[in-house]
Automatic annotation (TrEMBL):
InterPro entries: LytR/CpsA/Psr_CW_biosynth (IPR050922), LytR_CpsA_psr (IPR004474). Belongs to the LytR/CpsA/Psr (LCP) family. PANTHER family: POLYISOPRENYL-TEICHOIC ACID--PEPTIDOGLYCAN TEICHOIC ACID TRANSFERASE TAGU. It comes from the Bacteria. Residues 48-63 have a biased composition (Basic and acidic residues). Keywords: Membrane, Transmembrane, Transmembrane helix. The chain crosses the membrane at residues 97-119. Residues 170-310 form the Cell envelope-related transcriptional attenuator domain. This is LytR family transcriptional regulator. Residues 25-39 have a biased composition (Polar residues). It comes from Nocardioides alpinus. Residues 1-90 are annotated as: Disordered.
């Protein structure tokens, strides 16, 4: 390059500025001159000394802080292993897992719902008497009354029984059913029993029902026995017929051939399955056997107990049609006191099933009329008191006909 004139702002030859700008023969570059950093050690084979090299990658923990993690030097932990890919699940229908509990729930709803629905169809009556009554007693006492209520019969059933519509003004069945710690006791009071009917003097006890209905009958039974009646249950003709037919019949065991045109009854001796009309005639017949009404009350308890046995059959609950028909038949021809609730009705139904002591009130022929009876003054109090005190009934006081053995 041609020399530039001196004094034109160009560094003079021999000065450090001149040597820095144009190069010089000086052996030692100025202190602020750019110097080449010598390579440490021998270059690897095949690599030039000035070749650009790849710097090692700094660890993740050391970035952003001059190569040092905050808080000083730390030992880096190994990176977590990669998570395995989630496995595909096989689709399974969930409803299968809950099918059995669902079915059980539906069964329970049906078993509880059907009686509750038919409970709303049952007639309620005022059965609480006025005046002085026995105080509350342990256990529960139900007064079961079988009336001639026939307005729930079909035309065909009325034709067979040769009866018209009746509102239930007479009763052939009076039973005290006791439940408690002393066990179940079913005691019949024959309808021909002479008793004091409040306001009416001494009458046959079934006259109380005809004169004053349920309240007067309850008062007469309480006055005769001293037993406090907690609940009243009235069954009509149709209750027996339709309930027996809803069960598909019941078993009875007459001890002799029975032919009674008045009861439309013609059956042979021995255990047999009968329909509702035959069961009703069997429980009402009184002109075939020697003890008349005393034998009849025993047969009434037999039919009621047979219904209880059928009610306990598993088929009653397994067959929904049968279960519906039984509840419908009972609701159509039963009346209960106004103080009864569905739970009381359920306890009554349970009390009608299972083992019970069955008795007729201990009795004697009435001195004034041999066709009437009275409570035996020597033996009847033992039976009455056992029920009142909720204790075990003495076997001596509990006989099928009420007569001493």
């Amino acid at each position: 390059m041609a020399d530039r004139p001196q004094g034109s702002g160009v560094p003079e030859k021999g000065t450090p500025e001149y040597d820095w700008l144009y190069g010089g023969k000086s052996q030692s570059p100025p202190g602020d001159a750019t110097q080449q950093v010598p390579t440490q050690g021998a270059a690897p084979q095949g690599q030039r000394p000035d070749e650009t090299r790849v710097m090692p990658v700094a660890r993740r923990e050391a970035r952003g802080s001059g190569g040092q993690p905050p808080g000083g030097t730390r030992t880096a932990s190994a990176a977590p292993p990669p998570r395995p890919a989630p496995k595909k699940r096989r689709w399974r229908p969930r409803f299968r897992l809950g099918l059995i509990p669902l079915l059980l729930l539906l069964v329970l709803v049906y078993l509880a719902g059907v009686p509750l629905y038919h409970w709303t169809q049952i007639d309620k009556v005022d059965a609480e008497p006025s005046g002085d009554r026995p105080g509350d007693q342990p256990g529960t006492n139900y007064l079961i009354v079988g009336s001639d209520k026939a307005d729930d019969l079909t035309d065909e059933q009325r034709e067979v029984l040769q009866t018209g519509e009746r509102g239930g003004t007479n009763t052939d069945t009076i039973i005290v059913l006791h439940t408690g710690s002393g066990g179940r006791t079913m005691m019949s009071i024959p309808r021909d029993t002479l008793a004091e009917v409040p306001g009416e003097g001494t009458q046959m006890i079934n006259a109380a029902f005809q004169i004053g209905g349920p309240p007067l009958l309850v008062a007469s039974v309480e006055g005769l026995t001293g037993i406090h009646i907690d609940h009243y249950v009235e069954l009509g003709f149709g209750s027996v017929i339709n309930t027996v037919d809803a069960f598909g019949g019941v078993e009875i065991c007459p001890k002799q051939d029975m032919v009674d045109p008045r009861a439309r009854l013609d059956i042979k001796k021995g255990c047999q399955q009968v329909d509702g009309l035959t069961a009703l005639g069997y429980s009402r017949s009184r002109y075939v056997t020697a003890l008349s009404d005393l034998d009849r009350v025993a047969r009434q308890r037999e039919v009621i107990s047979a219904l209880g046995d059928e009610a306990l059959s598993p088929w009653t609950f397994i067959n929904p049609v049968r279960y519906w028909r039984i509840n419908a038949a009972a609701a159509d021809s039963i009346r209960v006191d106004e103080g009864m609730n569905p739970f009381d009705m359920g306890r009554f139904a349970l009390a009608m099933t299972g083992d019970s002591q069955t008795c007729t009130m201990p009795n004697l022929p009435a001195p004034s009329d041999p066709n009437r009876i009275i409570a035996d003054p020597d033996r009847a109090p033992a039976l009455f008191n056992a029920i009142i005190e909720d204790s075990t009934v003495p076997k001596r006081a509990c006989t099928p006909t009420g007569r001493a053995r």
